[in-house]
Write a structure and sequence with these properties.
By secondary structure, the chain is an alpha/beta fold. Helix content is 20%, strand content 20%. Helix 4 links the parallel strand 6 and strand 7. The longest helix is centred in the middle third of the chain and has 11 residues. It is globular, with a radius of gyration of 16 Å. It starts with 43 loop residues before the first strand and ends with a strand.
């Protein structure tokens, strides 16, 4: 299973990301699930009482528009969109999904299109191949292997063949500095690559952002970024 791997992989140099190409493996993605996992709904123990669980709180996440601009224009499906910081800068027709109805409401108050997971499945936007890019930022580190695999299996069919997938997780400083005390496991390049390959994605690039990898021990904003590609049928 991917989660049994914990060592860090060496990332690619920080250079302008090329557009994803046609060299993806001929791996077929699973059909969309009838019930999509709720983005960011890791159930984690509370500090006060062992065994009790609570959902992740609403947090204003940083914007990841720069990563999307490197890939190119197109409609984005953002899983774990929070209050819409990134979604607000995406192309028309982009959609956010979040587990928390409060976050979804805040997105809609900003004029954005956002849904809870089940509401997305019932929406007219849930069409196979409807999006150019899938983005999941600061979500996967809260999930176990089975939840990650389920999330990618559920949402990848909504990305067109040849489309991009951007996965982002915090580095050391961001991981230990989570103000809510709910940070899950440390999810580095090795784990991200294992998740992507398990989902049938071709890994096009991994890099550290905004500064090179060593800064991740001190800078909370530094993150691991993986850019993958959905196979062409």
């Amino acid at each position: 299973m991917p989660g049994r791997t914990s060592s860090s992989a060496a990332e690619s140099p920080e250079a302008a990301a090329p557009a994803v190409d046609d060299a993806a493996p001929a791996t077929h993605l699973a059909d969309a699930s009838a019930t999509a996992p709720h983005a960011s709904t890791a159930r984690l123990p509370t500090p006060q009482r062992a065994g009790a669980t609570r959902p992740l709180p609403v947090r204003r996440r940083p914007s990841y528009r720069r990563h999307l601009r490197r890939i190119g224009p197109g409609r984005v499906l953002e899983i774990g969109c929070g209050t819409g910081g990134t979604l607000a800068g995406c192309a028309p027709g982009s959609v956010g999904v979040d587990h928390d109805p409060r976050s979804v409401e805040l997105c809609r108050d900003r004029g954005l299109t956002a849904y809870t997971a089940d509401a997305f499945l019932a929406s007219p936007h849930a069409r196979p191949g409807a999006f150019d890019t899938l983005l999941s930022a600061h979500v996967l580190e809260h999930l176990d292997d089975e939840q990650v695999e389920g999330l990618l299996r559920a949402y990848l069919p909504y990305v067109r063949p040849g489309g991009a997938v951007v996965l982002i997780t915090p580095q050391e400083a961001g991981h230990r500095g989570d103000p809510a005390g709910l940070m899950g496991r440390f999810t580095d390049f090795t784990l991200l690559r294992a998740f992507a390959e398990s989902a049938g994605l071709a890994v096009r690039r991994t890099y550290s952002h905004p500064l090179p990898r060593p800064a991740g021990k001190l800078l909370r904003r530094n993150a691991f970024v993986l850019v993958g590609q959905v196979p062409r049928h």
